[in-house]
Here is the input.
Amino acid sequence: MPDVLLIGSVIVRKNGVSLQVTVPVNARKVLGLESGDILGFFWDGERIVLRKVS
Here is the structure.
């Protein structure tokens, strides 16, 4: 895996029948996330990549 910069970590929580992930403030800033935005989880064959999709 190439060198990457860790900008935050999360705890996955159970919320009813689904799981919930809270995006850390630093990651929200880097991705430019605001309330109501959609965050995509993409698999590239080696890792999961998060991207703002709206």
Observations:
- The chain is about 15% helix and 35% strand.
- The longest strand covers residues 39-43.
- The helical segments are 25-31.
- The two ends are 28 Å apart (CA to CA).
